[in-house]
Design goal:
By secondary structure, this protein is mostly helical. The chain contains 6 helices and no strands. The protein is elongated, with a radius of gyration of 16 Å. It starts with a helix and ends with a helix. This is Cytochrome c. Residues 1-22 form the signal peptide. InterPro entries: Cyt_c/b562, Cyt_c_II, Cyt_c_prime, Cyt_c_prime_subgr.
Length: 147
Amino acid sequence: MNKFAAMGLAGLLTAASTTAMAVKPEDAINYRQGTFSAMAWHFGTMGAMVKGKADYDAEDFSRRAEIVAQLSKLPMEGFVPGSYEGDTDALPAIEEDWDKFEGGMNMLVERTAALAEAAQSGDMAQIKPAFGEVGKTCKGCHDNFKD
């Protein structure tokens, strides 16, 4: 991430966290969709390596795993009241069962960190199970909280 992008993201995060109630629902939707899209970009490339559809590059895989681990900490900022209608697949069930949703998001942070750690080993025998756990975590939230 270049210096200007990092500064912009830091500013956005600060603004979002200090004015969460003032955030427009469409801005919250765009924010969380952007973070999830960036995660999917990297996770998809890692998936191709794990499945043998792309050559395994340990350095690139590890870099991407670290990016996903960092990005996993961001989406919660975008789940604000009133942001479950409009151009989103997020279900109102998020607000109705916030504790379960938050638990799933916390699990995502934990499991992506574990994947990043496994990726540092360069050993696919450690990476594959950690990658699978992240995928299961994503699926669990999608099954419960995404249309």
